[in-house]
Structures are given as structure tokens and as C-alpha cells.
Amino acid sequence: MQFEVVAKCHTTRARVSKMRLAHGTTMLPTFMPVATQAAIKGLTPQQVEALGINLILNNTYHLNLRPGIQVLKEAGGAHKFQGWSHNLLTDSGGFQLVSLSKFTKITEEGALFASPFDGKPTMLTPEESISIQHAIGADIIMQLDDVVSSLTVGPRVEEAMWRTIRWLDRCIEFHQKSGRDDVQNLFAIVQGGLNPDLRDKCLDEMIARRDRVAGYAIGGLSGGEEKDVFWRVIKQCADKLPEDRPRYSMGIGFAEDLLVCVALGVDMADCVFPTRTARFGVALTPTGPLNLRLSKHAIDFRPIEEGCPCPTCANGVSRAILHHNATLETATAHAITQHNLVFQARIMGGARDAIINGTFPDYLKSFFAKYFGDAGYPAWCVNALRSVGVDLLEDRPDVKVISGDGAKWEYSDTA
Amino acid sequence: MAAASTPSPLFVPTTPPAKFGPRTGTLTLARPEDGIFLSSDTPALLAATSRGIVPHLSRDHLHLAQAIQHVQLPFESFIDRNPPVPTLVDGSHPLHTFLGYSPDKHVITMTLRDPSDGRKMPPNGNDFVAAHCTRGVRKVTASTWSAYVQKCKPDIVVALSDTPFTPPPHSQKRLTKSIERTIAWLSSILKIPASSTMPDNSTSPRPRHVLLHLAGGTNLQARAEFADRLTDPVDYRDAAELEPLNTLDQGVAGYVFDLLPLRAALAAEAGNPLEEGDLAHGLLRASDRHRSSPESSSRLAELLQSSLEVLPEEKPRVLNSPVSPHEVLRLVRDVGVDIVDSFWAQRAADIGIALDFCFPVPEDDAHDSTTCAPPRKRKDGKSDLGHNLFDSAYVHDHSRLASAFLDGQSAASLGASAAHAVCECGACSPRTPASRILYSAVDTQAWRDRSCATTPSTLQPPSTRAYVHHLLHTHEMSAHALLAMHNISVFSAFLAGIRDAVARGTEHFAREVERFEKVYDEGMVLWSEAEVMWIEVERARGKGRLAREKEKQKESTVGTAVDL
């Protein structure tokens, strides 16, 4: 990997960088769409490329189950299998073991779980995880980590943090011996729950291994913790992580979360949210999400967003026809998915331009004014951005500030 | 303008056609006001739509699909709102605009009912057809239909017809009623009211191209009588409003045959009614269980012929809901059809089948089985018409979808030596996009790399059977997008093969049909197998993808859990 910071925000910790991997160069900060089963929902690889996206994510747990490593090897890796010639990242599979299997037991050796095929006890070790990711062949691979829910408290959090460090060493060892470390790049995952001391210890240990890892992910978040705690952990990690390594915040996808994370110094994020919400008829826009299933859209012939370059809006697909077919026709899910991925990419692309042009604080202010103007700004965003020198409320004394998570939704006709 | 009073004919046969028998020709949709003339060779493909769109194809895929020029638009999904939303769209091509079809590429045929929907329906009335929408059954009268057509300005419209969807068999009396009503409704759509000035002072012209279902059910006499009624001089009471038409048939641009209700009625008469009971779980459609045979085709041919006997042969004939290529071939041979609905091929994509057949059958089995396995042969030696990609036989099959067609990339590398036709679909011949969206000034750096192929419109490797197999079992929608593009393309190549063979003479064509019948399995065992596996996967994943995900979305933190 060649990683180069090309511009920095004069106020916040945001930066623009260039990450060169075996399958091309990706400009950061960026949002990575999730192709869990080796396909971005409903789209072909060419359609994804046309959206200007060149880094996507596959899930190791799922690909290991189906199609299985043997098939991927025959095909010459996951890139070839899915017809994707650009950059690819895989997770370690650890998160799904915990979130999808009730019977997973973590031991020092690895994660012991019931095979979804035959129920037999199966062990996923750090070495095994890396070996699977080698077969998949992603440009960025993740260490196996000991994941605990971000709501967990007590000694289990510390235990998981230390084990994650030990497993990192085993992953590094295995990866370097494999000879794959020149084409595949291993990222470490910082754990430590919501406890600043544990996070700090974990950061120290992992930074000590900086010469043997290509980048860092911030894990153990996005599990229902309070947003005001969430951003503090992100900030603590991003502040301390080395300047010359990309920083990846896992499971982040709401527009406001993305921009706050970027301002705190995060370079990459992934989430199923934009593609999943599309399948339920929700389109993302700069003025907030639009639930196209609401009957108010039935005779609205405007596109989702005037001037949006996505294939859906550029083709003049109206809210009315999307309303007619939302959740009933797969092609409508495809149309909204294309739009939502472009929305995410525009948020991040706009951030890149603003950082380079020295206007990132203004970019943040105008995004929040448009996106939350009438509903009120989430307090946690105000706090988070103040911590990096941007006061969203400056010149806007009348704006409401609301506590809680502040996600903006219109879910039903009765709302 | 001369064009307005004597519109150019929709269909011109290549040579003066016989009453019955294979024929080729050209369909030309002229919109002289825009200077647009869209031509296609016949027999031509008519793509089926669901709720206004070609299933599984996003608009960019629709526009890439070279095979899609004619689309059939059942209007009934829109009648859950009054007025229907498409009638509120402005401009000269409201349906194209609203549904994303391109006026300079696509020809839209608007019809009320979905010709592939064989569900039981409440009876029609003397002045209405019972149609289906998400809010249940709605009545559409002839005058309402004319009003919708007036607003939507389709290129081609199908007049309302009284086809009973109550359980067959239907009585003589019912058929008589059906004829009376269909004639009355045709007359209604062709009439220009004496007070033809609309509130805004524009005239309401007669729709340019009106197609008509030929009524009479499975009764030969009734069908002949219906045709006679069309060619009778118009009733003097209607003459003024029908001016300058001397017969109703003069106002008809072409004839439509819906095979689905005919097949259901024939089965009922033969004492094997097609049961709807086992379709109750809602995944299957009535037509999924329909099969063709030489006998059923000859019975259908007889019915179609009895209608066409007295009607002019130079008008185009539309064949809706055929259930096999065999059936299409025989009806082309024995009757002569010009426009063929591709629902059968599109439906195959829903249940995981990649079509792999061609017409005429290649001489000396030109399948290069070394790199790409041909479809499986059944015990009787006949080949499947495609591959059931749900089958675990495809787990390790990394070849292109169809053995009968090369993928674009292989064809390009073989150059002139390629023995096969090429499947130009988005699955077999994908290309790098013509452009990519750039989001910031530095984004050009991302696509400048030599390490990735980013030259616009460069052929890419085809989707493989193993990949589509994987997508089907993981319930990924991309599987159906790839299969829909592919199957429409294969069906289009099939029709192109028919055109070529017909051009080489009626006898040559008949010989090729016979060869085709000997080589390919008409019983479509493959379909029955695919259906079972498809339903298994649907059920294993709960009650349909969206219902399942909806539940999941409710119970999980939005967007943070992993996508299954």
C-alpha cells in the first residue's frame, strides 16, 4: 500500500489522502458500500463502477459459507468471482460470529461456533481468518478481533481488548509468513469498549506494531451506545493513531456520522445502511431521508433530488414512479440503491474538495443547516465538532439543539 | 397533414403474405410530428412489464438491452389511484417520460390487463372489465379506457375485450356476450364524439394504432363470427362518429392472441383444469404450470386460423403468453405471427434459469463442450432449453451462462474464427462503464491507475454460472438482473433465427422447426425442477425477502447490523 496525505483541514483533523492498492487508487475520505455476498444489492459490478465507486467491502463470514473458499480459489479470488476489478476490503468474520450465532464461545485459541451447515463445533482462529481472507484476495484484510457489544461493561471488555492484541500478533505472524503481505494489507482493529483507559492501552500496544500493519480500524462501536460517547471514542483513537496510516471507522453510514468522523480524522467508513434503507423505499437527500412509500409522493413528478448525478435522478426517475413500485419491484430497489450510494459518495467527495480548498468548516455548517435545519441539530454533533474547532451554532442563534441520537426519519404515513 | 388522416401502416410484410404461414416484415412506428420512425424486423420481441417496468432491469440496464424495443404495458397496476398517475403526466410521450422509456428507441403498447396474469377474476359487465391492482379489483369502462388512452398517448393501444377470467368452461351464451361486448368496446375506442372539441379546444383524435383481441374463446364458430362482425359495414347509427371507417376492422391496426386463457379453457374442456389451488402461497403464477405440446399447438393454430380466415393478412399478429419456443415456432409456421411476447423467457429469470438454446439448431452440434457445458440431455435424448442455476451442479462451473452463444470477450479474442453467435447481454458481454461519476477535483487520480482496466466500454469477462448460482442461493437480486438481461437476449436471438430461416423459404423453415423439436425438450422438466428449488430457497429465507428484512430492520439498530 502507498498511503499519502495530500491535504489537511486548517481547523479540524480532517484530511484528504491517496491510498494506492493492488487494484487501483482510492481517494480518502471515502464511504465503502457493502457487498456482503459478493454483490452490491441488485447491481452489477459495472453499475457500481459507473457510480464512481472503487472500493467495496465483502464479508468473510458469508463468503466462507457460500460460495466457500474452494470456489473462490477456482475462480482466482473474489475479485474475479464477482467481476470486480477495483479495490476490495474484507472483514475478519468475527463480528458475524457474535452477531449471527447464539452459540459462539470465545477461547484463547479462537472463536468456537456451531457450523450453520451441520451444527458441528467449528473453530475460527486468527490464522484461519487470515487464511480465508487470503483465498478471497481482498486488497485490505482485517485482523480477527474479540468483539464484545459496545454496551458490555466489566472485566469482559478488558479481556477482549487484550485478546484482540494477542490475536493481532498471530494474524501478523501468519500474514507475513504467507508471503501475501505485499499485495494484501492487514489492518489492526482498536478495541477497548467505551472505556478511555482501555482504549488508550489498546492504542499504545497497536501503535507499537505500526511497522507491521498497513492501517487501523476503530472497532467495537455502532452497537447502540450513546452517540455522545461514540464520538469521544472515535476522537480519542483518531487523535492518537499514526498520521501515516489510514483510519477506518467500522459500521458508520449516516451522513452526520460520516461528516463528524471525517472531521475527527477518520478516512474510511462502511455501512449497509444506504443499500438496506433503499430496499424499503427510503432515499437519502441533503435535506434528509425521503420515505418514498409515503402517499405524499404519489403524484410528485420531481426526481429524488434535482441536479443529482446518479443514474436515477439523471434519468428523470420521478418520486411518483418510485412510490408506485417501492418494495414491490426489485428494479426500484436498484434505482434507490444507486441514488443512495451516490449520495454517500457526494458527501465524502464534497468533503475532499472542501478540505483541499480550505472550506471544510463551512462545508460542515452548510450540510447541517440543510440536513437538520428545521428539525434541530443533534447535540452530540455540535459537541463533537466543537472539539475540533467548528462551532455549528456560530451565527445561528435560533437553531434548535436536540439531545439523543438525532437521526432524522419519516417512517410511516402516520408520523 | 396527410399523415394524420392516413397513418402509415404499422406493419409491412416483406412479401405479400399467404393467409397462413411463416412470414417476415417490418414494423414501423411513425411519429411524424417528432420526425421519429422506429423500425423493427418481424417476428419482433415484445418485452413484458410489471407495474410499468421491465422486471429486474434498472433504467441503465433497460437502455443497454439492445433486444428491448417493443414493451407491453399492462395499465391495471395504475388504477389503484383515481385518476391514475400516468394520466397526470404532461408532454407528448407521458408513458415514456413517466416510466423511463426512450421515445426514440422504445415503442409502448398499452393494454389494460396483464396477458400473463391468469388469476380468476370476478365477471366483467356489459360496460366494464374487471382489472386487478394492489387495492383489489376495479372496474374499467370503455369510456374510462378511452379517456386514459387519450391522456397517456401510447404508441399502440389494445382495445378492451371481454375475455372471461371466471373458471372455464364458458357457455355458448357467455361467448356470445363476449363477442357483443368486445365489438361494442372496439367501436367505443374508435369513435370520435360529434362534439369532439375538448375544453381546451384541441381535438381528440382516434388513437393511431388500435390492436384488438380476437374474441370467441375456444369455439371455432364463435371466433369466425367475431371476425365476420369486424368486417361487416358499421352500424348506421355509429357511422358519423366512425367516419371514415366503413368497417370496424378498418380501424384496427393488428390482432392480438392471448394464449393463456385459451390454454386454460382447452385444458378445462379436456377435463384437466389447471388448478390454482397449489399456487396459493403466492409465489407461482397460473402460467407457470402451463406446458405446450404438438397437440396443444395444433389446437391453438386452429383457433387462431378460424379468427383470421376472413381478416386481411397484412395486419400484424401479436402472440401473447406462449409457454415454449416450440409453441412459438409452430404458430409461426402454421398461422404466421409477427410480434411475440417474451414473458416466458423473462419469467425463467425469476426462477433461476439461464436460457441456452438457439434456432436454427446449429449443424453437427457446434457446442464447444470443452470450455462450456451444453444443457443437460434428458433420458429421451432431448436437451434442456437452459440451465437451472439453482442446481448444485453449477457450484464449480466457472463458464459463461450459455454454451450456444459466446461471451463478448471470448468472441473478441477469437475474432473472425468464432463459430458461435455472441450474446450481447449485460451478463455475457459486460463493458466497463462509458463514464464514471467524479465527486471531487482529485478523483481523476483514482481512475488514472494503470493497475486497473478503466478504459470506457471495454469488454469485461462474463458473469459465470458459479457466480449466479451463488447469488441465487444467497438471495441476491443481482442474480435476476443478470438472468433477465440474458434471457431476453437469448429470446431475441431466437426470433432473429426465425426471421433468417423464414427468409430462406417456408419449407426450409418447416425443416428447421422439425429439427428443433427433435433436439430440445418441450416438457420443460427443467422448469419444474427449478421451480421446486426456487420455492425452497424462498421459504428457507422466510416469507419473502422484504417482509423478512422489514422485521429485521424493526428489531435491529438501523444500519449497524450485518446485511444478510
TrEMBL record, chain A:
One of its GO terms (biological process) is tRNA modification. Substrate binds at D91, S92, G93, G94, F95, D145, Q191, G220. GO terms for cellular component: cytosol. It is an enzyme of class 2 (transferase). It holds the Pfam family TGT. Zn(2+) binds at C308, C310, C313, H339. Its main location: cytoplasm. Keywords: Cytoplasm, Glycosyltransferase, Metal-binding, Transferase, tRNA processing, Zinc. The keyword Nucleus does not apply. The keyword Chaperone does not apply. Residues 251-257, 275-279 are annotated as: RNA binding. The active site is at D91 (proton acceptor), D270 (nucleophile). Its EC number is 2.4.2.64. One of its GO terms (molecular function) is tRNA-guanosine(34) queuine transglycosylase activity. InterPro entries: TGT (IPR004803), TGT-like_sf (IPR036511), tRNA_ribo_trans-like (IPR002616). Its cofactor is Zn(2+). It is found in: Cytoplasm. NCBIfam families: Q_tRNA_tgt, tgt_general. Heterodimer of a catalytic subunit and an accessory subunit. Catalytic subunit of the queuine tRNA-ribosyltransferase (TGT) that catalyzes the base-exchange of a guanine (G) residue with queuine (Q) at position 34 (anticodon wobble position) in tRNAs with GU(N) anticodons (tRNA-Asp, -Asn, -His and -Tyr), resulting in the hypermodified nucleoside queuosine (7-(((4,5-cis-dihydroxy-2-cyclopenten-1-yl)amino)methyl)-7-deazaguanosine). Catalysis occurs through a double-displacement mechanism. The nucleophile active site attacks the C1' of nucleotide 34 to detach the guanine base from the RNA, forming a covalent enzyme-RNA intermediate. This is Queuine tRNA-ribosyltransferase catalytic subunit 1. The lineage of its organism: Eukaryota, Fungi, Dikarya, Basidiomycota, Agaricomycotina.
UniProtKB/TrEMBL annotation, chain B:
It holds the Pfam family TGT. InterPro entries: Queuine_tRNA-ribosyltrfase, TGT-like_sf, tRNA_ribo_trans-like. Gene3D superfamilies: Queuine tRNA-ribosyltransferase-like. Residues 22-232, 295-516 form the tRNA-guanine(15) transglycosylase-like domain. Residues 1-23 are annotated as: Disordered. One of its GO terms (biological process) is tRNA modification. This is tRNA-guanine transglycosylase. It comes from Trametes coccinea (strain BRFM310). The lineage of its organism: Eukaryota, Fungi, Dikarya, Basidiomycota, Agaricomycotina.
